Amino acid sequence: MPSPADDAALDERFARLSAEAALFMRDHVLSLVSHDVRSPLNAIHSWAYVLERKLDAGDASAQRALTGIRSGVDQQVKLLEDVVDSTRAQTKTLPLVREPFALRALVERVAYEGRAMLADARRVSLSIESPLDGETLDGDRERLAQALWTMLTFAVEASAPAAAVRVASVIEGGHWQVEVTHTMSFAALGNGELPHAFEPFACKQATHPREAGRIAWVLALPQRVATAHGGLFKQGEAADGEQSTLTLRVPLAA
Questions:
Q1: Which of the four, 35, 62, 66, 76, has the lowest number of CB atoms within 10 Å?
Q2: pTM for this structure?
Q3: Exposure class string for 212-234: b at 16+ Cβ within 10 A, else e
Q4: Which helix (H) or strand (E) holds 125?
Q5: In this structure, how many other beta carbons lie within 10 angstroms of the beta carbon of residue 67?
Q6: Which residue in 168, 165, 180, 178 sits closest to 126, CA to CA?
Q7: What backbone torsions phi and psi does residue 168 show, to the nearest 5 degrees?
Q8: Cα–Cα distance measured from residue 109 to residue 217, given in angstroms and rounded to the nearest whole number
Q9: What is the dihedral of CA 96, 97, 102, 104, to 10 degrees?
Q10: The Histidine kinase domain covers which part of the protein (predicted)?
Q11: Per-residue pLDDT tens for 156-196?
């Protein structure tokens, strides 16, 4: 039976892992805002030049309107640079502390934490399917543990009580690939009576349709960690009541 000290350590780690996921989600959203707002601003700026050639240079009112349009665009761009871009710089470059570590031990540890921190309380079972034994990966063990924990925790939160989450961990083609498979339940994500690790707005956003190639905001951390390791992260289709898979794939060595 875990001691009070063990419980306190788990609670502290749960809070830290949740905070890390929230930090990366914030910066991911800011990155999307910066990209998506710049596109129409660039269009407005271009059309302003078109209007300049069409308008009468002697029309003072039209010239004031044009100046106002350009000023507004410049103010918005400066706001993006000073507030949005500078804020998300914290996770834009992700330094890694690389060292060899055993993959199976990592997966088992994260699964244990996932059960103790959230899955057991939500009556969701976690199982590991893996042929790995002593195989190692040269990478940042803690960052990859955070990535896998975020994947597992999201799968747990997106699963109805008594559902099952499966973790498959294999090595293929010089890469470690881990897949977290679950059955998506929008009701479970939005159920405020169940314990959660992620903010309600993040859970709600995860139920919205996604543009091609984009992930749910809350999964920004595993995507960023995979990219930093020269790998990839993918979120499968997330239709209510359907099976969905989260995939993390990183090379075994830099």
A1: 35
A2: 0.82
A3: eeebbbbbbbbbbbbebbebebb
A4: strand 125-129
A5: 11
A6: 165
A7: -110, 125
A8: 25
A9: -40
A10: 32-254
A11: 999 999 999 999 999 999 999 999 999 999 999 999 999 99
